Amino acid sequence: MNGPDLGEIEAWFDDVLSGRVSRDAADRWAAQWISDDFACRVELDEDQLWALELLCGIDLTHGPGAGLLFSEEQVRGWRDQVRAHRGG
């Protein structure tokens, strides 16, 4: 089984930025694919793994009760990198 393409991963960044999905949900979605790749249940190419690794951890904070580690501007930059990488 193949993992999500770069367009689908980009859509998750868009959904986080628009508030349609939480950062936690995006992190869990990306982590499942990475976990499945390492368990040999799904095949991810280098580009897919790179993009999923950007999305995974998007919900990290500076510590308990602290703010988010990655700003919206950083998330937008990652989304733009994925978009450029896929030629979109």
3D structure, described in words:
There is one protein chain. The chain is mainly alpha-helical. It has helices at 6-18, 23-38, 46-55, 72-85. Helix 1 runs antiparallel to helix 4, helix 2 (23-38) packs antiparallel against helix 3 (46-55) and helix 3 packs antiparallel against helix 4. It is globular, with a radius of gyration of 13 Å.
Number of extended strands: 0
Structural class by secondary-structure content? mainly alpha
State Rg. Answer: 13 Å
Task: Give the amount of beta strand, in percent.
Answer: under 5%
> What's the shape?
globular
> Termini, distance in Å?
24 Å
Sketch the major β-sheet.
Answer: none
Question: Spans of 5+ residues with little confidence (pLDDT < 50)?
Answer: none
Helix count from the secondary structure assignment = 4
Helix fraction by DSSP (H/I, runs of at least 4): 55-70%
Instruction: Provide mean pLDDT, rounded.
Output: 91
H and E order: HHHH
